[in-house]
Every structure is written in C-alpha cells, then in structure tokens.
Amino acid sequence: MSSLANILSQIVSDAFEAQGLPRELGAVRVSDRPDLCQFQCNGAMAAAKVAKKNPREVAAGVVDWLEVEYARAERVDHSKPAPTSCNSIFAKVEIAGPGFINLDVKKSFISNFLAENSQKENGGIESVGDGQEVVLDYGGPNIAKAMHVGHLRSSIIGDCLRRIYLTAGYRAVGDVHMGDWGTPMGMILSELDLMGHDGPVSMELLAEIYPKASGDCKADEARMALAREATRKLQDGDEAYTQRWREFIDVSIAGMKANFDALGVHFDEWKGESDAHPFIQGMVEALKQAGWAVESDGALVVPVERNDDTKEVPPLILLKSDGAVLYGTTDLATILDRVQTHHPVKIVYCVDQRQGLHFEQVFRAAEKLKGAGLVEELPELVFAGFGTMNGTDGKPFKTRAGGVMRLEDLISMGLEKARARLDEANLAAEIGPEEREDIAHKVAIAAIKFADLQNQRQSDYVFDLDRMTSFEGKTGPYLLYQAVRIQSLLKKAEDQAVNFDAAAFDVRDEDLSLALLLTELSDHFDCALKNHTPHVLCDYAYRLAQEFSSFYGRCHILSEEDVTLRASRLALCAQTHRTLVLLLGLLGIGIPARM
RNA sequence: GGUCCCGUAGCUCAACUGGAUAGAGCAACUGACUUCUAAUCAGUAGGUUGCAGGUUCAAGUCCUGCCGGGAUCGCCA
Fold it and tell me: What pLDDT, on the 0 to 100 scale, is given for residue A79?
C-alpha cells in the first residue's frame, strides 16, 4: 500500500474481483513504456485464459468497472456529476495492444500522494518486521590473516542487508562469525612451538607465520600431524594453548575492526566458530540418541539425502574419523546458539556462492535438530550467496604480484584519488584539513561500496580497480554529489528566508518524471528485502539522482518566480533529498555536507 | 562423468521473475559553465540477447539439443 503502483494495484484488483477474476491479476506496475502511459496492468491477458474470453473484452470489463465505480464514488462524495471516463485518480484509462490496460494518474493525485508520504517515516516504507529478530551472518574474516578484497563482498552486502531488515522493522543482528577455530589455529600454535616463541604475538608476526605454517603442513604430513595435535589440544581446553589463542584472537580483532570501521560496516556480535564449541558435545550426543547421526567410514555423519534429489547430496560430517570437529559441525551448533540467544525468525547467510552445497547440507541437518528435540522452532534459513570476485582475465582476482590485494590498500588508493580530485575542485581553498579528510573518506568509501553493491549479488563480478575508484558516471560519488547539490540549494533557501511547506506539492509537467519516480520507493525496497538484492536499491538511487540532476538543469527552483511553483519544487527537492539519504543509508554510504 | 550457474553494445553491467520499441555507465563523437556546485547536463553512434529448434496472443526470460566459460561433487574453510 505504500507505493503509488501499490495503491493502483488495490483499485484494479477490486475491478478484477468484481469481474469474477483472481485479484492477483490486477497487479499494476510502473510502465516500461513511459511514452504510452505511466502505469500498466497486464492481467487481462492472463485472465482471458482463465475466463476463456478475448483479452480485450476482459480489459474492457475492467476499464468499465473502474469508470463506473470511481465515478459513482465521486458523485456520492462530492455531489457532482459523474465524469464520463475519468475520476479524481485517473487521467487516462485505456486498452492497448492485445489487452494492456494503460493508466495515467492526475497530477493532483501525485501531489497528494507525495504530500502524504512526505509526512511518513522512512518515505512510507512499511514496517513489516514487527520487531521479529533476524540474524545475519557476514564478514567471516579469518584470524591471523590480513583482510583482503575478497572480504569486501560479504561485509558490504551483509551489512546492507542488515540495514534493510532494520528499516523493514526487524530487529536485525549482524554477526561477524570469525574463522577462529579450525585446523588453522593448530597450525599457528604448533608453529609458535617450533619457533620456541614465548613473547607477545603481534599481527605482523601472525601474518608472517601463518602462510608458512599452512604451506609446511600442506607439504609435510608429519608437520600436519603436529597441527592436528595442537588443534585437538586447543579444542580440549588446554590452558596454555587457550591463553595464547585468546591473545592472537584479540590482536586479530583489532586489525579487523580497523578495516570494518573504515568501511562503515557494523556488527552487533563479534562471535566466531569457537563460540559454537560449548554446544557441540550435547548436540552430537542428542543427534546420536535420536538416530540422526550414524557412523560411516569411521566418521560420524548425518545423512541428508532425499528421495526427490536430482543430485547426490553427501551427508554432513559431524566428527572426522580422528574425532575432530569440522566446519559443518560448528555451523550447525552455531544455529543452536543463535536460536537459544535470539529466537530469530530467520538466519541469513551472506557467504560465497561456492559454499552452496555445504549450506544445503547444514540446512537439511538443521531440520534434525528439531527432530532430536534440541530446538522447538527452526528459523527460516536463507542462503544469500554471492558470486566470485574475478580479475579482468575472468579468473579469481589476484594482484599483478600474484597475491591478494589488502583491503586497507584498496581504501588508501581510493582516498588518494579522492584527495587529488578535491584539489582540483573549486571549493578547495575554503575547506579545512579535517573536513577535507572527511570528504575524501566519504567519497572513497561511496565509490568502493557502490561499485560492489550495484552488481547482482548472485553472479560473479569483475574486480576493476579503476572502476572502484572512479567518481564519475554511475558511481557512489555521483549520488553524493546530487545529494550535496540539494543540501546546498536548501541551505541557500534557508539563508534567503525562503520558506516552504514540505508537503505542499503542485506537480507540473516539467516536474512529473521526478515526482513519479519518487512514488516508486517502496516498490524497490520491497524487492530488495524479498530477494536480498542490494543492487535493486543502487539502481533506483542512481535513477533518482540522475532524474534529479536532469530536473535541476531543466527547471528553475529557487529562481522560479511563481511562488507556488517555487515552493512545490523546493518540496520536491526536499523529498528527493530525504529519499536519497534513506537509500544511501541503506547502502551504508555516508554523505558529506559539501564536496 | 553427474549436478548446478553463466553467455546481452568494443568493455563493465541492468531489464521489476512471460509483456509493447532490450536499457545504463565507461570508452568514442557533437554541443552547454558571467545564471541554484560542470564529480554535471543535452545529444549522436553502437544489438541477429552464443547457435538451432519448440511452447503462446507475447520469449533475453520457460522447454529440448548443441557450442563456449565457470563452480561443485564426504573427512580444508
């Protein structure tokens, strides 16, 4: 009910229902042929099949109903003669082509819609969450490893989804879910033993020894045995190991926080795989008791295949043949932890798409948690996987040196370019050093985040440094620039004591395209929420900014002499600004005061 | 080999889940700063949606078969 198309959908659905046709067919959407009409309903064609009638005949019935009903309502309400074809809402209702129902609404109706919406919180986005909890799992950095560009997608998309859920009225909980528990921990602990290292552990030291330990273990079975032994001791609660492990966790977290802060990515919980550990033993026992976990080739597994599977789904391994725990086990136990502490209605996993099968196994095994009496209700488990980050050669991204690019290096490069761009700008002289750094940072982050988020979540994407640090065209800084222009304009209005009512819209022909676009907000928000797709918001935000920029160049605003029109246009600017602020906020992008 | 995903303008990507004339950005070209910020705007050019069939009023979107690329297929995460 919160976008204009939604309101029209209700009305046209009534019309379909009155004809004895399914309501859903009355869905109205923004027209993809703006030259023909503003909104369209395509349901008559589908309805024709059901009713075994000519589609144009069905459409005619709907159109007649709309005219009669709305005419009658208007007569009662306003005691004036019924219009022949239109009413207070529609400027045009017509049938086109095979049975499209094309609709135009009156400008006064748009003005009223905007006036109402301008008073609502969040631009009229409905709060459907009702305070229910949703846990989001994203970020997933590993202990002892510097964060690289590969962590970008999970962090940024996950944080954006968290913001979307919050705005939809859910209590969203972001959990970083660090990789702090598996064999890598044993590799590091055993490496420190081999070195005879006893002093404090720094991030530099960790970053140096982890790749070595990992390489050695891969090459040498005996070395790997040491790592396994260390892992087992740690997981059994060895005091000295636990203390040392705690130490390098703390060091690593400090490094992660620096990166996440720079990106503006927020977490409510800093938990890791290790936090699932207390749940594992009981869980394994219960699953064994219930008969869901069985022995297979020396390992303890939960079979999860189904009769209707078209593919082979291997069982989830709870315990390896040597008794150690695997990431499937911790992922399963983590669900227990989350259910007990949050009672979420959903858990959303923002992880690499390549882990799809793994989570399929985990999700299926999770159903057994209920069967084993470990949980009363199982939340909806959502796999919001993202595609691989490739280089321009189409292969997984590597720097020219063959390594991975560190996240902080990417941010510095963005910052560098933003500073340089600021130097060229006209307002360079009047800005102090602190504000200047703040602007450069906001511009750089906007560029990086928008470049990432505008890609479809599911598909692979090409990492292009130039594109990520570009400030022109379809970029984050373009959006900031348009928002800043509006801010500047509104401030000027205030300085000149030009007052206007933010709800007094009087939409004219030249304002129509911007006004109509503003009525679409919740259509796009709903889509992004339902499908967990931030790029939908990026696309809408960009189109809105673009439409504003065109409007700005085409129309007089502050310089408009018609006082009513000037006020309306200022209100339009204010509403555009509120909408951009909301959208950029959802994307996790901050706006400077000027740039 | 089994299963799944992808193939759209020179490049990077959209296309509201089957709708009308497939849209943006970059790169190229032409214009617009004495006027509310030119990180901008207005315009030009660029397409057999990998190929071939099929389903229907309508296919980039659905079904089949090819071609090309990628992911994944029990003791790593």
Answer: 43
pLDDT digits (tens, 9 = 90+) for A204-251: 888 889 888 988 898 888 999 999 899 889 988 899 999 999 998 999
Query: Is the model's pLDDT at A259 over the cut of 90?
Result: yes
Domain ranges of chain A: 4-105, 133-180+266-390, 183-260, 407-454+467-587
Q: Give the alpha-carbon dihedral of A82, A83, A88, A92, to 10 degrees.
A: 150
pLDDT tens-digit profile of A351-404? 999 999 999 999 999 999 998 999 999 999 999 999 999 988 778 888 877 778
The answer to whether strand B lies under 7 Å from the CB of residue A215 is: no
CATH superfamily assigned to domain A4-105:
Arginyl tRNA synthetase N-terminal domain (3.30.1360.70)
A484 touches strand B (CB under 7 A): yes
CATH 1.10.10.10 matches A407-454+467-587: no
Distance CA A356, CA A321 (A): 24
* Residue with the larger pLDDT of the pair A541 and A147: A541
3-class secondary-structure state, position A300 = strand
User: How many Å from the CA of A132 to C1' of B35?
Assistant: 53
Report the alpha-carbon distance of residue A321 to residue A325 in Å, rounded: 10
Beta carbon of A54 within 7 Å of strand B? no
Q: Which contacts (CB < 8 Å, 24+ apart) does range A307-316 have?
A: A313/A357, A313/A360, A313/A361, A313/A364, A314/A361, A315/A361, A316/A361, A316/A362, A316/A364, A316/A365
> In this structure, what token pair is assigned to residue A119?
């008073």
- CA neighbours closer than 13 Å in the CB half-sphere of residue A93: 25
To the question of domain A133-180+266-390 being in CATH 3.40.50.620, the answer is yes
The residue assigned the tokens 């939809």 is A168
Amino acid at A437: E
Q: Count other C-beta atoms under 10 Å from residue A391's C-beta.
A: 14
Report which of A85, A124, A114, A105 is spatially closest to residue A2, judged by C-alpha positions. A124
How far apart are alpha carbons A63 and A102 in whole angstroms?
A: 10
**Strand nucleotide closest to residue A558 (CA to C1'):** B36
Report residue A454: phi and psi, to 5°. -75, -15
| Strand B reaches within 7 A of the A361 CB | no
Q: What is the DSSP letter of A532?
A: T
Per DSSP (E only), the strands in A346-460 are: 346-349, 380-383, 389-390
State how far the Cα of A491 lies from the Cα of A577, in Å rounded to an integer.
12
